[in-house]
Amino acid sequence: MNINTERNALWSIIDNLAQQFLSLLVFLILARLISPRDFGVIAVLHVLVTFFRQSVLDAIVLPISRTNEATDELYSWGLGICMLAATLMAAIMIGVTPWASDWFDISELRDILPWMALVVLAYGASAAFEARLIRKLAFRSLAIRSVIAVTTGGIVGIAYALEVGGVMSLVAQQVASSCVALILLIAQSHWTPNLLKGKKNWRRFSPDIYRVSATGFMGFLSSQGDTVLVSVLLGAQATGFYSFAKRLTSSVYLAFGAAVLRLSISAFATAHTDAEALKKAYLRILGTSFFLMLPMLLGLSVLIEPTIHVLFGDAWLPAASIVVLLSALYLLLVVNQVNDYLLYAINVRSAPLKRSLSQILLSIIFGWAGSQFGLAWMAAGFALATFSVWPWNQRTCNTYLSLRLSELVYCMLAPLIGAFCMVALLWLFLPSIQIHVADPGTSQIAKLGAWITFGAAIYVALHRVVIKLLPGVHDAFREVRGRE
User: Fold this and answer.
1) For every residue of 253-285, which 3-state class applies, written as one string?
2) Phi-psi region of 105 (alpha: psi -120 to 50; beta: other; left: phi over 0)
3) Chain-centre distance of CA 43, in angstroms?
4) What is d(CA 179, CA 231) in angstroms, rounded to the nearest whole number?
5) What mean pLDDT, rounded, does the chain reach?
6) Which of 33, 54, 207, 371 has the highest Cβ tally under 10 A?
């Protein structure tokens, strides 16, 4: 059983990393072929599809997967409800096409929305098949599905961009990826649904469906509400730049911050009855989060202009300042989420909800105010909203753990000193980072890679110096290497 669990966890990690890597690779190519405005248009529609998946499809299939009697008959019923919801959503998307095109002032929506309705139908048909495979722990099949679907969609999108160009290249990518994923799910499931059974299950599952839907909607507002606000207030061009910056900074969060947060769930659950053990676990999780994320986000902020120039093209340079602001936002987000997980572990469940609601409300207010002065000010408003809810959240955690401010600072001291000294040195030598347009592509990439390596080496060296000089400081580097 332990071997199977480890294998499933490994395939789950492979699935996530493969999707992140392949998506970024495809984006690197498409970013040089398609304008920021076209990316902004597809970002608006991607937000709509994400809302449907989190608030509707997940709300239908998750309660079925959680029940002890998750039979094929129940999954057949769930598939029927998902298809009904997807058909209704697709019809609405097609029906509102003229109005949406005029309201967003995006003429291309008249051609795009009918195709994106097909993507919604594919996701609706996939939801029950995917939930059934997850319940059966078929993570290897799901990982293979993801790799093939993302790769196929990327190839189709790149080929279309080279041949025709424009936003329809991104639409073709979405359609190909979702349809291939559906075909693979059906082939891997070895299951023939019977949509005529299970007509009396709505009353049984409706309470759970409503709860999961509400949770999904809150999660959607927290993760995608900023993109919605940018698209409504500033339009497709600004949304393209914002989505670009969000993609870069969120990749650091998804690769490292989210992984540490998953560890915190088990760490807090194990120690929640022992206040001292819980304090140590909290400081270790927070220190490790800063050790991994702070240098990457600060380094990305310093080197963002040469990074954009070399990897994505100068058309994306207006997004550089947004990357800096969102780097601060994601670092604060991890701190807030670590605090939320701690409060959940000690049954203070109302505090995280109040924090989320307050942050959403402040993001709307500050974001709207910032939009009057441009995209950078709007992003600053989102970061300010995330920071504004932190002191109250942190004070709640400190009170329960009897945690002194000095202890909090001490657990993050080595990453803070190492990262800020790294930034100072990079800023000092930044004028000497000469990456010319005339240089060959490989030469540009090599120079950028050398500066990234230099920054990483400086950070690790200074982190070790601080640990040696102050032996009581939390050594996250030792923990990451798995040594006690």
Assistant:
1) HHHHHHHHHHHHHHHHHHHCCCHHHHHHHHHHH
2) left
3) 14
4) 27
5) 84
6) 54
